[in-house]
Amino acid sequence: MNILICDDEPLGRERLSRLVVEAGHHVVAQAPNGLDALAKVSEFHPDVLLLDVRMPEMDGIQCAEALTGLQNPPAVIFVTASDQHAIEAFQKQAIGYLLKPVNRDDLSAALNRASRLNAAQVNQLRAANHGDSPTRQHITARTHRGMELIPLDSIYYFLADQKYVTVRHAGGEVLIDETLKELEAEFGDRFIRVHRNALLAIPFLEGIEMVATGQYQVRFRGIDERLAVSRRHLPQLKDKMHML
């Protein structure tokens, strides 16, 4: 992919440039602030913009907001020394948030996610940013890589365990500190409760099978994992299966 790097520190830009090249991508330009980055986006049409937050003239958040007005904006990955702007960053359609000093593996993983982001997902993020969508189209999770963006349509299930919820998605697992009750209230049209500690993504629902007398589990499309189904939620799940 073609990458534009925006950071007000020359040494920071050069280090990122080396990591990008080592990851097998091409640096088309560098910019010292958001204003210059906007001009170079129009000139070079990069696939991805690696964007710092705190910069003179125009900071990264302002730059990302300005990019949402473009017809085909680059994917934005924030690279910054602070995690305090993560939520605001994702509201400006960022697909990644890396904390400095960035290591090679984390950057490579973020760029790989960017390469898989299709046009439909970009449009969903832009719609959410402009208030055209009633719910989020992604889940944010803080991991060892920083803040990660998990597309909602890639999530198989949410599984509660004490104070955290595991998000099982196409790329693996992450932990979030939201509750199942909150998630069910927000995404009840796309997920169904199968147990007091589990919400299942309806599009990935493949079937129900009996494992013992009175005990059932659910099968997923795409993965071999199973989730237990409680007796309380079994009738609702069967009704949903008949509707699919």
TrEMBL record:
This is DNA-binding response regulator. GO terms for molecular function: phosphorelay response regulator activity; transcription cis-regulatory region binding. The keyword Phosphoprotein applies. SMART domains: LytTR, REC. The modification 4-aspartylphosphate is found at residue 52. Keywords: DNA-binding, Phosphoprotein, Two-component regulatory system. The lineage of its organism: Bacteria, Pseudomonadati, Pseudomonadota, Gammaproteobacteria, Moraxellales. GO terms for biological process: regulation of DNA-templated transcription. It comes from Aquirhabdus parva.
